[in-house]
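Sequence, structure tokens quoted for completeness.
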Amino acid sequence: MGVKLLLRAHPQKGGAGPAHHELIKRVLDELCCSLVRSDSWSVSCHLMKQGHGVVGSMGGPAAAGGGGAGGLLRDMWAVAFRDSPELVYLLIRPEFKALECDLRMVRLVEKKLEYAKQMTVRLEGTTYTKGDFTLRLCTATQAIHSTQALLGYCLDLEYLPVSSMGAADGLVGECVELLRQTLAGLVAAGGGGGVGLQLEIIRPAFEKYGLMSQPYGRTHAAVAYSDLVVAMISTSAAAAQQAAQQQQQAAQAQQAQQAQQAQQAQAAAAAGAGAAQQGQAGAGGQQPHVVHVKHQLPVAR
């Protein structure tokens, strides 16, 4: 396995959309990357939460009567790669703990420690090659029960010849810069759907997991993907909150406009009624002009 670097397609405003996927695909086409049609690739990241309090390690509560940090419930991520279905990587992110295990261990954790999957983020897509690099254009989809939502897109950039992160840094950095320059050129040339789109590097804290000095492997990739998914979820939630606020502000503005129009209509109606009353009062106050003629009786002579 080579050294991987994950790049998140991060729009500056709003959420991700199909136009962003198409734009990144155009970037790969501009760089003459070859599509590998036979490669089917995916990563699944499961957020697992603990149910009832039970005794155990792996973040389970302490025994009855115990206290302290050992008694806290902890969320855990389980990361699985399609090309190694027999292995799962369990991550407790706040404590920077990572464990490679097989499926039997996961079932044991679910049964004995009462962990259950609450949410799944699946990343899947197409594979491209360019020299010693393999690039995977991924679509991230969040599934909670029966509800699915698009989280965004990313590029999985892998440099195959070496597994040392230090040795790969230079060439990987040059490749990232080339991708960014090509993206900027396409946007400037009229890629209106991608204005503000950036390729953001995911930088996991490998040193805190004790992985910095080790050759790059699947545990590194699992940590990187968990960081990527958390960043995508955070951005998606912020975008949804911003959209909700904008809708609320628009509704409030519409209500204020309607109230103002109603007030203006009431004022106009009141003014019309007042004018009518004044007209009626003026007509009723005028007295008819009466001419009195005095008739004198004729005088007898």
User: Anything to note?
Assistant: The beta strands are 3-11, 34-50, 76-81, 87-92, 97-102, 115-130, 133-144, 147-159, 197-201. Residues 74 and 94 are 9 Å apart (CA to CA). DSSP finds four helices and nine strands in the chain.
